[in-house]
Amino acid sequence: MNGIQHLPPWAAVLTAVFLLTGAAVTLIGSLGLLRLGTFYERVHAPTLGTTLGTVFIAAASMVYFSVLQTRPVLHEILIIVLGIVTTPIALTVLVGAAHFRDTAERAQLGKPAGRVQPHARVPGDAPTGKAG
Amino acid sequence: MSGASGLVIGPILLPLLAGAGMLLLNGERHRWIVAGLNVGATFALVGIAAILLEISDTGTRDVYRLGNWPAPFGIVLVLDRLSALMLLLTNILALASIVYSLARWHRAGAHFHSLFQFLLMGLNGAFLTGDLFNLFVFFELLLAASYGLLLHGSGLARVKAGLHYIVVNLAASLLFLIGVSLIYGVTGTLNMADLAARVPAVAAESRGLLEAGAGVLAVAFLLKAGMWPLNFWLPTAYAAASPPVASIFAILTKVGVYIVLRLSLLLFGESAGASAGFGREFLLFAGLATILFGAVGTLASQDTARLGGFSVLISSGTVLAATGMGQVGVTSGALFYLVSSTLGIGAFFLLVELIERGREPGADMIAVTREAYGEEVETDEAEADVGIAIVATMAWLGVAFIGCALVIAGLPPLSGFIAKFALLAAALHPTDQPGGAIPGSGWALLAVLILSGFATLVAMARAGIRIFWASPDRTVPRVRVIEMAPIIFLLFICAAQTVWAGPVIRFMQAAAHSLHAPAGYISDVLDNGPSSRQAEGK
Amino acid sequence: MSQLMLTYSLLVAQVLLGLAIGCGALRIFLGPRVQDRVLGFDTLSVNAMLLLLTVGIRTGEALYFEAALAMALFGFVGTAALAKFLLRGEVIE
Amino acid sequence: MFLLAVLVLPFVGSFIAALLPVHARNAAAWLAGGVALAAFCIIAVAYPSVTHGGVVGWRTAWIAELGLLFALRLDGFAWAFAMLVTGIGFLVVLYARYYMSPSDPVPRFFSLLSAFMGAMLGIVLSGNLLQLVFFWELTSLFSFLLISYWHHNSAARDGARMALVITSSGGLCLFAGVLLIGHIVGGYDLDKVLASGEAIRSHPLYVPALVLILLGALTKSAQFPFHFWLPHAMAAPTPVSAYLHSATMVKAGVFLLVRLWPALGGSNEWLWLVGSAGLITFLLGAFLAVFQQDLKGLLAYSTISHLGLITLLTGLDTPFGQIAAIFHIMNHATFKASLFMAAGIIDHETGTRDIRRLSGLYAFMPITATLAMVAAGSMAGVPLLNGFLSKEMFFAETIEIHDNSFVDQALPYIVTAASTFTVAYSLRFIRDVFFGPAAVGLPRTPHEPPLLMRLPAELLVLACVVVGIAPALTVAPVLDTAAGAVLGSNMPEYSLRIWHGFTPELLMSILAMVGGVGVYMMLRSYLLVNEGPPLLGRFSGKEVFDWMMVTLSWRLARWLESKLGTRRLQPQLRVLAATAFLAALLPLYWRGVPLADPLRTPFDLAFALLWTVGAACAVGAAIQAKFHRVVALILLGSAGLVTCVTFVWLSAPDVALTQIVVETVTTVLLLLGLRWLPKRIAPAWAEAPAGRIRWHRARDFAIALSVGVGLATLALAAMQHPDTNSISRYFIENAYVKGGGTNVVNVILVDFRGFDTMGEITVLAVVALTVYALLRRFRPAPESIPVPEQQHAQDSHDEAHPDRQKGDTAKDTTETASLMMRLMFPVIGVVAVFLLLRGHDLPGGGFVAGVAMATAFILQYMARGTTWVEARLHFMPVRWMGIGLLLAGCTGAAACVFGYPFLTSYFAYAELPLVGRVPTASAFLFDVGVFSLVIGATVLMLIAIAHQSLRRYAVPPQSGRHLGSEASKEELV
Amino acid sequence: MELVLAIGIGTLAASGVWLILRPRTFQVIIGLSLLSYAVNLFIVAMGRVRSGAPVLIAKEAGDPARYADPLPQALVLTAIVISFATTALFLVVLLASRGLARTDHVDGQEPEA
Amino acid sequence: MTRLLPFPIISFCLLALWLLLNQAITFGHILLGCLVALVGGRILTILELPPVRVRRAGIILRLLRMVVMDIVRSNLAVGRIVLGFGRRQRRSGFVEIPLDMRDPYGLASLAYIITSTPGTLWVNFDAQRGALTIHVLDLVDEEEWIRTIKDRYERHLLEIFE
Ligand code: NA
Ligand code: NA
């Protein structure tokens, strides 16, 4: 069904290498999401996927389809660019939000009598009652 | 395509364009233009439906091939007696509701008129379409519009009832999808006629899947038809809806009933091979149970509007049970009954608010509006001078109440009695031979209908006495001609149905005969003729 | 031979990406804070987008590109909305 | 034809009377009286044609398809009855003209009375049984309205309701019985039915049919055990009682018995059922009548008793019995109507009907007293009055041997005893009211009523006397005609003479007379103090009825409703899920599940991994949705992403694309909603017995699991189902050739099945309008009205620092992102246009493009907030929706103009200068319509929610440009 | 693959059904969304699993059996749109209910006892 | 020119986007692309985007090359950390960097760069004080990070945009 059998060996190898590298980089990034200790550290890890991971897999796709269709297939560049352009939009706000929540909570904890106001929490942040 | 055939799209296209056109007008500033558009469009729809009824009565089915694609590939609209009948019924009821709403209700919320037209589009489409998935779309359309209209006027009661109504119907819609897609998976078609042609040939090992699909589909329809035990949402929702909306809702359950009637006879009729008669006994029992539940509910109702809701159940249950009997005569009686009870219940819902109006000074709508939306009271201020309050209000209301009660309870002189007669005479009389044995189903239907008639009578008498007589200090409500006229109009149709019962029954019998002999339907739909998709630009 | 290698590489790559998606999901489950879960969701969506690209290669069908593009283009909107919600308590002020 | 006139006349009169002004007393009376008199005269004139078995008929088609004609039929029996109905009707109208108070809405009274007369005539003249039932129920209805004429009186309401419920349900039974008869006979035509007596009696359905018809007849005629409604109906105005409860409505039951006797009589069942009902009623009524203290109550029980007598006569199942019954029907009508009128006059003139308070009225109203005494004499069976004649016939008939059973042997003794009571109450009526010392303390000083008010009673009493003295000259031919019509060739020999010699029946009459005087003397002292009969104690039918009404029709009904139904949502959904499960399971159970090799396509590890995640997310969402809403939302989104990827895996790129954009918008939507859902706090009832909750959860879990397994099984079985000859083949073959596009899915959407899409976008429009309308009335939970905690905290943080301004914190965090988001607007826009333009040939289309574009708008709102955006972008969602719908609709309708069906597409390749060959399909215009609508609808829905943040709740309206304010109804932006 | 997909559909459906049987409105909306995923997948599955089948038709369609069944896909697209719309509607209704009834119980009132 | 084409660079990017999406450089598509780009630019003025002033376009390429190198390097570094090949105790933390740059596009570009580079994270920019807070995964020396950001990125960005 697919076109792999029509692919010249060099292109197949190149595609395979790009693919595996990209997938591996992405997996490492995602592993970092699990292995790193704090939220701020964890935010760094998935960037691997959005940058190099995407680049490699998009490249694999470009090589593969360009060879297959015998014309330059470049629109995967868009995925790379859009990925890089959009990720910061979400992450800056997310990190900002986390940062503020942390500072606010630290400020609250610093107050006497330990009256922890849950004001910086959002619904779903922590259990507030029994499930039912 | 002859001119007459082209008219079949009218009941769908006209409300679409009317509804869309209203969106271009500013709802507040052009309210009366929008209202006029609504009335005009609906009036035209009644006219179109009447013409279509006339056409359908020639006995040939009008098959409208949308996009000029041949059946079963494209979507078709099929006009036969049954669909034409439902169209006329729907639009007559709609006209009454709209005229009624002009007195005050159309101002209780935004976009009432366009929602109403879209509801009509959904209803008309559901009655006309010959395609299972297209039916889903029209079902969703009419449901979506009904959600909107049910919530029209807002307020706690409506929102609570609306929430249940929406959740239950959403769940049923999912079942609809599962059923349709499963049937498609097994048979490879969506066209009802094609499906009917394919059902007998379905392989034995696939028949379980096919019937499972049909079963799931039936649950979806039966929920909408208000079958017990899937109908608990209905009385509350109908009672909560504003009167014009509840009135048009009287036809909503009939969509489910219509589809069950249509599909059970088309797909699982006598010629359906191993699946013939699938689910018929179940329908009978469920229908009877629904009637009984409705009867219990009418007795247990304190609230007049709820009483109307339970009457809807009795009406649905009766037609379902009749469908389950699978006899031509019973079906024709059921159709007569369907028309009569729908009109009666529609009129009743319109009436409920008028008679309750005098009992609770400051109708609930205003209170609800204030409560719900402190700052934007947008109704009722300037409307006292609109229309003329009618004289002898209580007498009119009383007569109308009695009329509705008689139709719903199936007592003379209005059409309810003839309807029950037509139903029962056929149910007791399965063969042409006089004096033969009466089937158990006939006895059951007889007993249950007599019982439900009794229950309705008791409940209506109780309600009527409570409303009209038991509170001497009630104020006489301000009722306007445009509120009273639609009710009288609907009851007048019921009376006419009694007087001209003969021709009406003849029509119903013809409709029932063709329903019970689906071969004609199948061949009419699948015979694409020479012209299909011949002449498009290339 | 090289084709076979590519076929297997595709399978392996997809499994790796599948695992990566699993990592994202695991972070959603583990939390502990909502921001962690949002982050996991964001990762999951990027990884899913990459998986889509590999499906395209595997089937030789260039048409899945649009789906991947849409994920790349719209994936952030959900995350951004969640982040905004965390920050301000409402998405649109 | 004149029959139709007779039937229609009262209804026309009724209708006109209803339209008369409230105080048009005389006009209404004239009208009603004129109508009655006219009908009377028409019928009287028709006499010659009904003698000697003559029958006048008139029929017209009604429901020919069901073997039903509208048939009117006048024979001797019907003639006699119609004469009674119209004649007494006229007299009652005359009487009522004086009886009714001017302050009552009299036209309504006469309107109802005329309508009742019409209905009664309908029963009498019906030529088929179904039509008879039709009018039968009408008499119940009008009697209800007449009894409750003084509806401010609760006794009237209760009495009316009781009468309605009992007689109407009897009518329903009659209806059922008639249906059975129709089934047996094969038609409802009266002639046919009467001719089929043999067939009916030998049919297995005879007994049920008989029982049902008797239920109708006996309830209407107030026969035991349904007799109790009649005394309570006495709350009606006296003219109503005089008419309905003596001459007409209650007679309908016995009319029916006599009418159908040829068809149904002549069997043991008839003898026993009808005979015993009649006998018991006769006895019981007479006994109870003695103990009534209300004049009308006495008359009511007397009526019950006399109706019992008539029923007994028909029940004795002989031709002679029928003749006697007919005769007594006539006689009873005359004397009882006049007695009611007398009672009414007394009530009218004295202000009371209590026998204990009334006394010595003879001195005040001698003429009325005389009239009443004569009529009461007739009632008691005093010789030379008509009552005596029919009673003699009755006694004679009871002596006849019928079946030699014990009851039959005892019958003469029993009826003599009952007649003793008849004499006693008649005597009491006369003695206690008209004689004795003059009454003191009456509400009004009594005097004779106006002449015309007395006239009806005078005429009736005259009839009693004339018939009583000279029966052969007066009533004999009429009776002969009437009886002949019923009995046909079956007429026995009988003679109407006052003196038959010393016969056993004369002895019985004498015994009854003497005994009656004795009983009256004995009971006098008892009656002065006691209310109600001694033996039956406080037992009353009304109490039983009320108990049944309350218990069966109210308490039981409510209990059943709560058991068989629910108003809660969860049980409903549980039932729905279970029903759906069973609906799919049972066919599969019966027919077998076609599960073959589960691995038709090879196992795919990545796909399995993907679905491990997907399933985990779904389950996670299920667990978290209660208290961790955001988490559940995230998990839901993740499950959605997995679904998207799966669509790609299943070769459905269009679906995946759509799912992705919809997914995004849904997430934003739900988050917008979360703003207005206050935090969930575990309520106190969570501490409720854990056992019950655990059981509920276990049950729900079982249902959920069943449905899940069931759906999975269905899916698996269907996926392995061999390929069918699907209609898709046609789409694939013709998408390009005839549809002009290479993307089959899109060609299906906009062309093959464009009608679906048309409907679908309308759904979207409808929902958007609904959301908008509902949110205009939105009132948030009080807890969520203040600004969110985060904003509050950030603002107070800014205010706490002198170098910061309010809003700085938020601005710092979002400023850069906001710039980027605004930059994304044209980017997304370009992609949207791209998706729109290429849809027909490649994945994409109007819907995806529309949602994408809407996302761009929403992003701007997220970046800068509502106020800012709406000051700059003037976007009118409702108008976009309208334009989109119109465009799509008109594109489709354009085909109609060219004579093709709706939505017939047109496509061609246009040569554009410089650009080259461009495919132009009308389907594209349709897609543009979709695009426009989807943008409008999506933006409208989301922004309508967002706008809630701007509204100030519970404070005076703001003049700002927010949703719902006058300034921006349409312009959301 | 069929088995995996079927299990996936089953899990989505089971979670969805569990949620719509819960008493809180938000649970119900999440449940309905999960159910609609399940149903959408189910519909596509009715076209049989054809991984990697061509999507577009060439000018000469050739053997139709090569293609993934386009009809269920078209149906799903309609279904997605409709379920999106109804989700939005239900959300607003649940918000309105929460506001008016002061509780997020599906019945608009906390159960007694 | 500015009225017709207020954001030439962005419009050019949109045209490129259009052509890439359509994978075709036909005259028709260029025409359509130009139209789309013009409309896009027009919308940005409505959205009140500040004007883009690019002084020295040449530096863009140099910066881009540098950023790509940094991203690749950081990818490797972070990958090592994740996989546990870290040679020593790693410390992560916040660094506050005083910035001179105020141009919104410059700041946005910096945000893109910092966020896209694994190992650094844009946390907050205090516009009042001109202080940028970033989070660094492997924080050896704060001063070095401040220098890196200011010298490698801010300087170039300042040259480009101000
Ligand atoms: Na005897
Ligand atoms: Na007395």
Shape of chain B: globular
Count of helices of chain B? 22
Task: Return the CATH class of chain C.
Answer: Mainly Alpha
Strand order of the largest sheet of chain B: 1-2
- Find the structural class of chain C using helix and strand composition: mainly alpha
Order of helices and strands of chain B: HHHEEHHHHHHHHHHHHHHHHHHH
Work out the strand percent of chain B.
Answer: under 5%
Task: Report what the structure shows.
The complex is a heterohexamer of chains A (132), B (538), C (93), D (973), E (113) and F (162). Chain A has helices at 9-35, 39-44, 47-69, 76-110. Chain A has one domain (8-112). Chain A is built from 4 helices and no strands. The radius of gyration of chain A is 22 Å and the shape is elongated. By secondary structure, chain A is an all-alpha fold. Chain C has 93 residues and is mainly alpha-helical. Chain C has one domain (2-88): Orthogonal Bundle (Helix Hairpins), CATH 1.10.287. Chain C is built from 3 helices and no strands. With 973 residues, chain D is mostly helical. Among the domains of chain D are: 540-589; 735-955, no CATH class. By secondary structure, chain F is mainly alpha-helical. Chain F is built from 5 helices and 3 strands. Chain F has helices at residues 8-22, 27-46, 58-83, 104-116, 142-161; strands at 93-98, 120-126, 131-136. A 3-stranded antiparallel beta sheet of chain F has the order 1-3-2. Chain F starts with 7 loop residues before the first helix and ends with a helix. Classes of the chains: A mainly alpha (132), B mainly alpha (538), C mainly alpha (93), D mainly alpha (973), E mainly alpha (113), F mainly alpha (162). Chains in contact: A-C, A-D, A-E, A-F, B-D, B-E, C-D, C-E, D-E, D-F. Chains B and D meet through helix 2, helix 5, helix 6, helix 7 and helix 9 of B and strand 1, helix 6, helix 7, helix 24 and helix 25 of D. The structure holds sodium ion (NA) (2 copies). One sodium ion is lined by residues 355-356, 358-359, 432-433 of chain D. Residues 398-402, 408, 411 of chain D line the site of one sodium ion.
Short description:
The complex is a heterohexamer of chains A (about 130), B (about 550), C (about 90), D (about 950), E (about 110) and F (about 160). With about 110 residues, chain E is mainly alpha-helical. Chain E is about 65% helix and about 0% strand.
Short descriptors:
heterohexamer, B: 538 residues, mainly alpha, two-stranded antiparallel ribbon, 22 helices, 71% helix, globular, disordered C terminus, C: 93 residues, Helix Hairpins, 3 helices, 0% strand, binds sodium ion
Task: Summarize the helices and strands and which ones pair or pack.
The complex is a heterohexamer of chains A (132), B (538), C (93), D (973), E (113) and F (162).
Chain B: H1 3-6, H2 10-24, H3 31-56, E1 62-65, E2 76-79, H4 81-101, H5 112-128, H6 132-150, H7 156-187, H8 192-198, H9 204-225, H10 233-240, H11 243-249, H12 252-267, H13 280-300, H14 304-325, H15 328-357, H16 364-372, H17 393-409, H18 415-427, H19 440-469, H20 481-499, H21 501-516, H22 518-526
Antiparallel strand pairs in B: 1-2
Chain D: H1 2-19, H2 25-45, H3 47-50, E1 56-63, E2 68-74, H4 76-99, H5 106-125, H6 129-147, H7 154-185, H8 190-195, H9 197-202, H10 206-220, H11 229-232, H12 238-247, H13 249-264, H14 268-290, H15 295-315, H16 319-350, H17 366-380, H18 386-399, H19 406-434, H20 451-469, H21 471-474, H22 476-487, H23 504-529, H24 541-564, H25 569-591, H26 605-624, H27 629-649, H28 653-674, H29 690-720, H30 728-734, H31 744-752, H32 754-776, H33 789-800, H34 808-838, H35 846-864, H36 866-870, H37 877-897, E3 907-912, E4 916-921, H38 922-946
Antiparallel strand pairs in D: 1-2, 3-4
Chain E: H1 2-20, H2 25-45, H3 70-101
The structure holds sodium ion (2 copies).
One sodium ion is lined by residues 398-402, 408, 411 of chain D.
